[in-house]
Design a protein that fits this description.
This protein has 165 residues and is mostly helical. 75% of the residues lie in helices and 2% in strands. It has a two-stranded antiparallel sheet. A hairpin with a 2-residue loop joins β1 and β2. The chain starts with a helix and ends with a helix.
Length: 165
């Protein structure tokens, strides 16, 4: 029974990582094919999806170690929760604060996003406005879909933490 719980928990974590990486790939394809400009908040969410994917790999391989596996899964939960907060803020901007920048006076994270864009422009270049929804699918913007994804990842990681092993 314990082996089954470890395997199912490990595969849940692997599925989260694979889905997070898939969302980054999908975002890149959508940006290229639909000529969408990512904003700093979009890029920050992309970075968090990549972090979540890396953390999922670590959690997958550390799942058999009780403390290390749980700590890595807690880190995944915090990453997903942070991403959800950013996606919720961007959703709020798009719905209620039209034609504004992400935030005034370029906070540290926005400078970090622009620096990352200079280092790896095909992955992290931010040229769009955070308040502009751009493309929608089934009536929801990419930020709203990202909020759903991060919420799902948060619930899944919390479920993995609560599992007995």
């Amino acid at each position: 029974m314990t082996l089954q719980l470890i395997v199912s928990r490990r595969w849940l974590l692997a599925a989260i990582g694979l889905a997070a990486f898939g969302l980054v790939a999908t975002g890149l394809v959508l940006a290229r094919t639909l000529n969408l400009a990512a904003c700093p908040l979009c890029i920050l969410q992309r970075m968090l999806y990549l972090a979540l994917a890396v953390e999922a790999v670590a959690a997958f391989f550390l799942a058999h170690r009780p403390i290390a596996g749980r700590l890595t899964t807690v880190l995944m939960s915090l990453t997903a929760l942070t991403g959800g907060g950013i996606a919720a803020y961007q959703t709020w901007l798009q719905r209620f604060a039209k034609d504004v920048s992400c935030i005034a006076d370029q906070p540290w994270w926005e400078r970090f996003v622009y620096w990352a864009g200079e280092q790896c422009p095909w992955l992290f270049e931010a040229t769009g406005l955070c308040s502009e929804a751009g493309w929608k699918f089934l009536g929801l913007s990419i930020a709203e879909w990202s909020l759903i994804a991060f919420a799902t990842f948060t619930i899944a990681t919390l479920t993995a933490i609560r599992s007995k092993n």
